[in-house]
Amino acid sequence: MKVYTKTGDKGTTALFGGTRVPKHHIRIESYGTVDELNSHLGLIRDQDINQHYKDILIEIQHNLFTVGAILATDPEKAILKSGKERLNIEKISSDDIQKLEDEMDTMNEALPPMTHFVLPGGHQTVSFCHIARCVCRRAERLASSLNNIEPIESHALIYLNRLSDYLFVLARKLTLDLQADEVKWIPEKKS
Description:
Elements: E1 12-14, E2 20-22, H1 26-45, H2 51-71, H3 94-110, E3 117-118, H4 124-149, H5 154-177, E4 184-185
Antiparallel strand pairs: 1-2, 3-4
Helix pairs in contact: 1-2, 1-4, 3-5, 4-5
């Protein structure tokens, strides 16, 4: 199988279902940003961190491929003539969202309460988490914008929202695990 098809040489690409759209279409931006996020998660997973976090991250990466597939499907071609869904895969469920919430609750039990915003950084692995969190927020903004134009599955949007929260809590937990400094943002008062 060749990787290159030359079909996108004029600045268009095909959605799942065959519809061609410009490569700058909000739908392409949405799933492209989810793909970018997935790559950042792979970078975090490659770090020297607890195996449990690696296992959760790989599960999240699988779910992000599902989110990407949902975003890449033309809603007008989502249902086949036979009445079946074109995208014949398990979708993001409330259980997937609940798992992120449960993981956050477990990590939060070990963390000191937050009293201030924290500055990203302190350790390279923690910084990778903060970068992934920001990319996740961008993916969520794009998916939300797309949802205003062409509705998408609500669980996919909720999942991105919850995932950015998860990545923030993971960054804090890794700060603790790696014994890195968590620098609070304390703005200086005007004199």
